[in-house]
Amino acid sequence: VETMELKRMMKEFGRGGGILEASPHSKPQNTSVAITMSSSPKVVQAERNIDYQHRGQWLRAAMLGANQGVVTTASLMMGVGAEESETKSMVLSALAAVVAGTCSMAIGEFVSVQTQHDVDLAGLKREKKLKKTLHGFEHSTHITLPNPIEAACTSALAFSMGALAPLLSVAFINHYIIRVGVLAGLSSLAL
User: Fold this and answer.
1) Are 156 and 101 in contact, with CB atoms under 8 Å apart?
2) Which residues contact 81 (CB under 8 A, 6 or more apart)?
3) 14, 149, 176 from 159: Cα distances, Å
4) Which of 28, 86, 105, 151 is close enough to 61 for a disulfide, judged by CB 3.0 to 4.6 Å?
């Protein structure tokens, strides 16, 4: 259940009174809550579900970082390789792109996820009014907030790994036309 949807359901529950039944088997980590309301006794039941949101955070950062690593490094290497230059200059420019891109992706991902974390945390603080009403519910669930450091590290590592594909594909090819062709082909396959 998305955070906004969960908040909406909790507000509806708070207005209607009723009983909250939290699953006694739910773990405080990696769980989300599905809330259902019955019409007659106004009973809200919380069911334990696996929370894929946490996994999705690092997976999104990894996919974005890897794709960005392939595209950025391959594009720069093709630009340098368009002129009849040595393999050494292509490899050095690719290494510079890897360092710059890794830093850029890590910082960008950190800022993005930290902002999302702050927004989610502010929303949770606004829900303090529900603590008394949802006392049993509070202890049986864990709302996963995004981790900016984890996302930054994942993105940086994925960018570096993605950048290695075009870098290693041409590092040992001397003829520039073949080098650029191999670079374009293998980078396309890597995506």
Assistant:
1) no
2) 90, 170, 176, 179, 180, 183
3) 45, 15, 25
4) 151
